[in-house]
Design goal:
Largest sheet: 2 strands, antiparallel
Keywords: Cell membrane, Membrane, Transmembrane, Transmembrane helix, Transport
Structural class: mainly alpha
Low-confidence stretches: 207-213
Number of helices: 7
Pfam families: NMN_transporter (PF04973)
Membrane topology: Multi-pass membrane protein
Mean pLDDT: 83
Subcellular location: Cell membrane
Family: Belongs to the nicotinamide ribonucleoside (NR) uptake permease (TC 4.B.1) family.
Order of helices and strands: EEHHHHHHH
Helix content: 55-70%
Length: about 210
């Protein structure tokens, strides 16, 4: 894996490693496939996490651990979409809006998770270079991937909220290449959200158990 940590090129004064470049490109491809509701979004996301895990393992334990969680959620997404793809008329999953209960649960999980992960990062400084925003981006990514796995259109909003912190954070810390990648993520998110939003408006909403008919 040492070759993955070698320098690919220099851009905007930033030394770009092969692992960063390949992992970011695969992440963009995974998001684009998610927009198209393509099942291969999850294997590509898993491959992105695997490459970054291999690059970080042994010297950046916190970053490697985060990628391990991303890979686990990618496996869950693959399993979930395999279950749900047959329910749509076009052979893909059918996007839907989350219920208010689901939205509340995701907001609560994001808030509690961010605080818990940030405190963990602060307790072990080697796990993160900037605990609070790093925790926000990490937990937000997991929430977004979970919502995507469940076919919720709100997953695009979660990605957008991650981008709103990720873009200025990377540029402010001199990571222009990573910031530029987040800008592309943002553009894909807006296009994907429009597509899923329109599809979700044509999808009957789920009824919670016990709700009045």
């Amino acid at each position: 894996m040492n070759s993955l940590n070698s320098e690919a090129f220099v851009l905007f004064g930033q030394h770009i490693l092969w692992s960063d470049m390949i992992g970011n490109i695969l992440g963009l491809i995974a998001l684009a496939l998610g927009w198209r509701r393509n099942l291969w979004s999850w294997p590509v996301q898993f491959a992105s996490g695997l490459i970054l895990f291999g690059a970080f393992f042994g010297h950046l334990t916190g970053s490697a651990g985060k990628q391990a969680v991303v890979m686990a959620v990618a496996l869950y997404g693959w399993w979930q979409w395999n279950r749900d793809k047959g329910r749509g008329t076009d052979g893909h999953i059918t996007p839907r809006f989350a219920t208010w209960r689901e939205r509340g649960a995701m907001v609560a999980a994001a808030a509690v998770g961010t605080v818990a992960v940030a405190l963990l990062f602060k307790a072990y400084p080697s796990l993160s270079w900037d605990p609070w925003p790093d925790a926000y981006i990490f937990v937000g990514t997991i929430v977004a991937m979970y919502a995507q796995a469940r076919g919720m259109t709100e997953f695009w909003i979660a990605w957008l909220l991650v981008d709103l912190v990720g873009v200025p954070l990377n540029f402010a810390n001199g990571y222009a290449f990573s910031g530029f990648v987040y800008v592309i993520y943002g553009a894909l998110v807006l296009w994907g959200m429009r597509d899923w939003w329109l599809r979700s408006r044509r999808t009957p909403q789920p009824v919670l158990e016990g709700a009045p008919a």
